[in-house]
């Protein structure tokens, strides 16, 4: 049996996110920056939370 203590073992990474480039209004960016500074959270974390909340509470109206 080989000594595993001397091995550098790499396992496959499971993708849990994707990189996405978007354009947002300056005012939205200002709000994100302000909340990030006040909360100590990253912009990425805040945007993910906001998007999740929006989609979890989305009501789609097909009649408009």
Write the layout of secondary structure elements.
Blueprint: H1 26-39, H2 43-56
Poorly predicted ranges: none
Characterize the biggest β-sheet. none
Give me the Rg, rounded: 20 Å
Structural class: mainly alpha
Termini separation: 68 Å
Give the total of beta strands: 0
Helical content band: 40-55%
Order of helices and strands: HH
The percentage of residues in β strands lies in under 5%
Task: Report what the structure shows.
By secondary structure, the chain is mostly helical. The chain has helices at 26-39, 43-56. The mean pLDDT is 90.
What's the short story on this structure?
Helices cover 44% and strands 0% of the residues. It is mostly helical and 64 residues long. The N and C termini lie far apart (68 Å).
Attribute tags:
single chain; 64 residues; mainly alpha; 2 helices; 44% helix; 0% strand; extended
């Amino acid at each position: 049996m080989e000594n595993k203590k001397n091995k550098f073992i790499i396992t496959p990474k499971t993708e849990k996110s994707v990189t996405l480039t978007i354009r947002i209004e300056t005012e939205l960016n200002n709000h994100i920056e302000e909340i990030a500074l006040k909360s100590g959270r990253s912009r990425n974390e805040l945007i993910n939370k906001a998007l999740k909340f929006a989609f979890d509470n989305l009501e789609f109206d097909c009649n408009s």
